[in-house]
Amino acid sequence: MIKFFRKIRQNLISEGKTSKYLKYAIGEIVLVMIGILLALQVNSLNQRRLDRLEEKKILISLKQDFRNAIEEFETLNLIRRDLILAAKEIFKLSPEAVNEYPETYLDSLFGKTLSGPTFNNKSGSLNVLLTSGKINLISNQPLKEFLIEWPGDVEDMIEDESIQNELYQGRYLDMLGKYVSWNNLVKVFAFARARFDEVTVESLPDNPIVTSDYSVLLANQEFLNVLNRRATSFMITNQETIILIEKAKEIIQMIDNELK
Question: How far apart are the first and last CA of the chain?
Answer without folding.
Answer: 46
